[in-house]
Amino acid sequence: MESDLYAGWLPDPFYYIFHLIAWMAPVVGLQLAIGWKIFLPNLRAILWPPFWVGTYLIFTDVIAVHFGIWHFDPTLILSGTVDASSSPIAHFLLQPLGVPLEEWIFFYLTALLCSQSFVLFLPERYRHSGSKAG
């Protein structure tokens, strides 16, 4: 017996992206609302680590998918809605390098959350203040 957790209002291919937005957007938004004055002078410390960490994790995911270590259920990701033979560009945009777009977003957002949290909880003396002493 199959249970439909979303009672039909959420199509299957939107499950992963829905959960990414539902769980991460409020946390990112709260961090930005609270810490934007801290984040602005510390942008390099906030943006570079997620770029490198996210890219590394995507690279390892591409390898794992390629070698069949794991796979993604095409019925639960956005690229599952597009037939690769009829729309290869759309399929590539939704599943670049064989890894679903949702997975890319997950890796970069998770790394961004860690980076923002680190800067927020870093003692003030170790952060850039944004004011130039002259």
TrEMBL record:
The chain crosses the membrane at residues 14-39, 51-72, 104-122. Keywords: Membrane, Transmembrane, Transmembrane helix. This is Lycopene cyclase domain-containing protein. The lineage of its organism: Bacteria, Pseudomonadati, Verrucomicrobiota, Opitutia, Puniceicoccales.
